[in-house]
Write a sequence for this structure.
C-alpha cells in the first residue's frame, strides 16, 4: 500500500489555530454503517449507551519547550521528548552547531543542562539542578504546540491544550480527542450508565511526523510508553458482559489498548509500543473511536482508515473538507464505528 493513497487536499483555512470558545463547542461527524451524519459534540451524550465504557488517556502535556544558550553564547532550543528519570531526558536540540558531549546548555540564565551524548535524533541530557525535571519544566518551559499551529503558546494554550482528566505528566503532545470533554459531559455520561476508565500513553513528537516512505510498511514507527491499570481491564470486561461497547477516546487510547492485548485478552501493566496500525489490521478491543481529523499521509490517518474502512474514511475526509470542518488538535471530532 502506497503512502500516496492517504493524501488529500486540505485548505489551510481549515487548520484550527485556536480552540473553540468553550470545550465541547465543536462539530462531530458520525461515521457508521449507515453512512455519514453531521452532528455536534454535545450530541455525544445521546450516542453513548448504557454499559458502554469510554477509555480516555490521562497523560499530561509537559512544558517541554525550553530556550537557552550554549557556553559560547549561541542560542539553543530544547524540546524534551522523554523524561528518563528525575534528572535525565531525551530531547531534540536546535542550535547553529551541534552540541558536543559534556558541553553545557543554560536555560533562563539559571538552569544548567549537561549534554551526555546522542541517540539517533535525540540528545541525552542531564539537568544538574537538585530539583527534578518535571518541576524545572513547569517553571521554565513552554507548552509545545504542534508545528501546524503558528502562534506562540500563551495562557489560553496552557489550559486548553490539556484535557480535564490529565494527571500523569509525560507527553509532549496532547491526546487531542480528549480536549473536547468538559467535566459536565463526563458526569452526564456516567449518570446514564456509561463508565469512564483511563489508560496512560505519553504522546511523543513523532505523532506529527508524516510517512515519508513510498511504501507505508517501510515506515519506522516511533515508540511511546503506556500503562493499562487493572481497573480499566475490569471495566472493559464488565462492559463486554453487559453488552456494552468499548469506545476509545483518541488514537492514543486505542493504540495502548491494542498493544496490551495478548492472545485476544487485554492485560494490565506497562510497556513500550511502536504498533503501526494500517488497513488490514484485525482490531481486538475497541468497538468505536472518537478522534479528531488527522494530517494527510500520517500514521494516524492510516489507523482510522484501518478502523472504519479506507474508502469510507477517505470519503468522510472529503465530506469534512467540503463542509468546512476544522482539522487537527484544536479542530472538530469524528465518532467512527468499527468496520465489521
Amino acid at each position: 500500500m502506497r503512502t500516496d493513497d492517504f493524501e488529500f487536499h486540505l485548505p489551510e483555512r481549515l487548520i484550527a489555530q485556536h480552540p473553540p470558545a468553550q470545550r465541547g463547542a465543536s462539530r462531530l461527524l458520525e461515521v457508521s454503517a449507515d453512512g455519514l451524519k453531521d452532528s455536534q459534540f454535545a450530541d455525544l451524550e445521546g450516542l453513548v449507551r448504557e454499559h458502554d465504557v469510554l477509555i480516555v488517556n490521562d497523560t499530561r502535556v509537559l512544558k517541554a519547550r525550553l530556550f537557552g544558550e550554549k557556553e559560547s553564547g549561541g542560542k539553543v532550543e530544547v524540546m524534551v521528548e522523554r523524561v528518563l528519570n528525575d534528572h535525565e531526558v531525551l530531547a531534540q536540540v536546535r542550535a547553529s552547531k551541534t552540541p558536543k558531549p559534556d558541553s553545557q546548555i543554560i536555560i533562563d540564565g539559571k538552569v544548567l543542562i549537561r549534554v551526555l551524548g546522542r541517540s539517533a535524533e535525540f540528545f541525552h541530557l542531564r539537568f544538574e539542578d537538585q530539583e527534578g525535571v518535571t518541576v524545572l519544566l513547569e517553571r521554565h518551559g513552554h507548552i509545545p504546540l504542534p508545528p501546524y499551529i503558528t502562534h506562540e503558546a500563551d495562557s489560553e494554550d496552557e489550559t486548553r491544550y490539556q484535557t480535564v482528566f490529565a494527571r500523569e505528566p509525560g507527553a509532549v503532545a496532547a491526546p487531542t480527542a480528549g480536549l473536547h470533554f468538559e467535566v459536565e459531559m463526563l458526569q452526564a455520561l456516567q449518570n446514564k450508565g456509561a463508565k469512564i476508565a483511563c489508560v496512560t500513553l505519553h504522546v511523543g513528537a513523532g505523532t506529527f511526523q508524516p510517512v515519508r516512505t513510498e511504501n507505508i510498511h517501510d515506515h519506522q514507527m516511533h515508540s511511546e510508553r503506556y500503562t493499562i491499570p487493572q481497573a480499566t481491564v475490569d471495566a472493559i470486561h464488565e462492559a463486554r458482559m453487559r453488552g456494552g461497547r468499548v469506545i476509545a477516546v483518541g488514537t492514543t487510547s486505542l493504540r495502548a489498548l491494542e498493544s496490551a492485548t495478548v492472545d485476544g485478552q487485554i492485560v494490565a501493566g506497562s510497556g513500550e509500543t511502536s504498533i503501526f496500525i494500517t488497513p488490514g489490521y484485525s482490531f481486538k478491543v475497541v468497538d468505536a473511536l472518537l478522534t479528531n481529523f488527522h494530517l494527510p499521509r500520517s500514521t494516524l490517518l492510516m489507523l482510522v482508515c484501518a478502523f472504519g474502512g479506507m474508502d469510507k474514511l477517505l470519503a468522510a475526509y472529503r465530506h469534512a473538507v467540503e463542509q468546512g470542518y476544522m482539522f487537527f488538535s484544536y479542530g472538530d471530532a469524528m465518532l467512527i464505528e468499527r468496520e465489521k
In short: The domain at 65-140 is CATH 2.40.10 (Thrombin, subunit H). The chain has two domains: 3-61+157-337, 65-140.
